[in-house]
Amino acid sequence: TREAILRGDQYVNYSNVTLKEGGKRADILLAIGEDVEGKINAEVLSIPECGECRSCVDDSCHKLCESRLAKREELIKREMKRIAKGGGKKTSKKRKHDATKGPKPKLTAGKSLGKRKPLKKPNGAPRVTSLGNKRMSIPDEQFPEFCRRIGARGTGERMKVINAFVDENPEVSTRQVTIKFSEITTRKMPSWMSEKPKGKAFMFYLRGRFYHLLPENERPENWEKYAAEDELLWKEEKRQEKEKKAQSTKAVAEAKSAPTSETENVSVEAESDGEPLKKKGKV
Asked: For residues 283 and 263, what is the distance between their CA atoms, to the nearest angstrom?
């Protein structure tokens, strides 16, 4: 293989070449940041050839001159000692990240590293968010005030009304107030109103059966008439809801009691030895 390379053959078989790792050259190249090999070669080539060794006399010998080779070995040993003592350029080591040090992480919206501050009542006392199994519904004495906030002419700010009432009354829950709001309001504009308020896409109107809870100056004219009409409408709605619930319950009960498959006895006649036979089977 060596001779083929020296002859400059186009195709060379490298199957017999054994690659070895390590060696003096490899150790020298470990000096990162310095051209150690180039410096050694420059010093070696500065020495004139002896002209007496086999490498200088025989043209077929491609080894380095013995005097230059001795100088190279000397320079390699010297550089290896210097590198072993730390004479080469020092490479900076990456510092390990210490999770306990460094800048504090930035807080994002909706996240907090500290404890959550308790909700406060308007008077500064902590807000109660749950009373166990007790329903935090609107008390009877505060219900007229809640109806007044909706008003006979309605409101287009549903959540604003609910949240404001809950903030001022910590003993009630947002869920219960929202449920009550849907029970006492309607999307249909009352017949006594001439036109819908401008600028509001969705309006919620107080039902007529609750007009008596409003202050006298906020009730519409002939409010008793509209209250009676809405009372009859409310009773009819409840009756329909009760019927639908009963029908649904009945349908579920029938579905449970219905058999999975119908069976009946049938007679099958067959002749055997001239005598008819009757067999009963299930289909």
From this structure: 6
